[in-house]
Write a structure and sequence with these properties.
This protein is α/β, with parallel strands linked by helices. The protein is 35% helix and 31% strand.
Length: 175
């Protein structure tokens, strides 16, 4: 689940010397690792190897537990933001001969989805003899598109596929 980078801490650091940064972010300079460990120990903090690939490696004096907590917190925030921006495609299915009130309920749901920023995929179902009257579906699709034209634009034009007429509405982009 967590993709946190593992840092070497205190005695795990294998370099002979390091570029030391104190807990306030001030650069102390290049010091032997033993001296850096001693300074960190005196302050009651940990010595953490931040950039092991650098020559000499960069080490920082800090509270490692707090550092890990902050990293996890940032990762959670990033995941949360990513989830917020995901656009879902919501499916709405209805028959071609839908009753007026039922259509209004479906339109209300579509409007809610579009206002939340989701796309809506509309499936108009043809049953039996309705298949020979595709104009019924076209008429209903046009009506739905017109009703939602203030907040939605057609992303995929109505197209008959088998027993369904399918089209996709996307929220209008804000200018």
């Amino acid at each position: 689940m967590s993709k946190l980078k593992e840092y070497r801490v205190n005695r795990q650091i294998r370099a002979k010397e390091c570029r030391l940064i104190d807990e306030n972010g001030q650069q102390i300079g290049i010091v032997p690792i033993e001296e850096a460990l001693k300074i960190a120990e005196e302050k009651g903090l940990d010595l953490v190897e931040i950039a092991p690939q650098a020559k000499p490696p960069v080490c920082k004096i800090m509270d490692y537990g707090k550092f890990k907590y902050e990293l996890k917190k940032k990762e959670r925030e990033a995941r949360k933001k990513q989830r917020e921006h995901q656009i879902e495609v919501k499916d709405i299915r209805m028959k071609v001969r839908i009753d007026e009130h039922d259509l209004q309920v479906k339109l209300k749901h579509m409007r809610e989805f579009l206002e939340e920023g989701d796309k809506v995929k509309v499936w108009l179902r043809f049953r039996g003899r309705e298949n020979i009257y595709p104009e019924l579906g076209k008429k209903l699709a046009e009506r739905i598109i017109n009703e939602l034209s203030d907040i939605a634009e057609v992303e995929v034009q109505p197209k008959k596929e088998g027993n369904f007429m399918i089209f996709v509405l996307a929220p209008k982009r804000k200018k």
